[in-house]
Design a protein that fits this description.
A hairpin with a 3-residue loop joins strand 2 (62-65) and strand 3 (69-72). The protein is elongated, with a radius of gyration of 22 Å. The protein has helices spanning 9-23, 35-42, 46-58, 77-114, 117-135, 141-154, 158-166, 168-171, 189-200, 204-223, and strands at residues 31-32, 62-65, 69-72. The protein has a 3-stranded antiparallel β-sheet. It is built from 10 helices and 3 strands. The protein has 2 domains: 9-75, Winged helix-like DNA-binding domain superfamily/Winged helix DNA-binding domain (Arc Repressor Mutant, subunit A, Orthogonal Bundle), CATH 1.10.10; 89-223, Up-down Bundle (Four Helix Bundle (Hemerythrin (Met), subunit A)). The protein is mainly alpha-helical.
Length: 225
Amino acid sequence: MKSIKKFSLHEMIAEEIKRYITAHQLKRGNKLPSVAELTSILGVSRSSIREALRYLEGIDVIEVKNGKGIFVKEGGSLKIEAKIEVEQEKNYLLHISELRRALEGKAVELAALRATDKEIQEMEKLLTEIISLKEAGFDPSEEDWAFHKAIYKASNNPLLESVAESVSDTFNKLWSKPFGIDHIFVDTLPFHRTMLDGIVQRDPAYALKEFNKIIDTVENTVRKI
């Protein structure tokens, strides 16, 4: 089942402004109604309109010129649609990453304290497979996800593992080649190694620090898209 995305108020207002641009066939350089006029047209507060305009200006759909008005910056409704969809998808992926940082970060700390020798051997085996596949030019996404699931298991907290499993379909958005990126975690492999070292050494603070480097790298990659 496909996950249902939740949009903030300013994103919904931005969508309405985009529909206005499309319906009125506005092109690059054309002027939009004023903030006061948009407030009346859309029936929302001025502060909400301004937030939506900042959002659209941030993705280069419009340009606000002081004393002159609001102008369409990106010509063509299809380009505007694409820009908004990409920005929404990026935000969604970043929200997933924030959730993963919270859940898996705790699992990493607990695994450093509770992982059995057998669980550590399983993580070592999976990480070796990931590295081998990458070096051979294959996509290690499936093995990478299995490695991270092994961390949840090694936390030996059944409730934490259950929660992670319940949102696994959502987490897999990060492993399913978003924006056509073959493997979004390709630059994080060194931190997988050092994070696992922290678990092996029973050092939860170090393991968590290295895990956060993985998440930081992923989020930076998404933001650059």
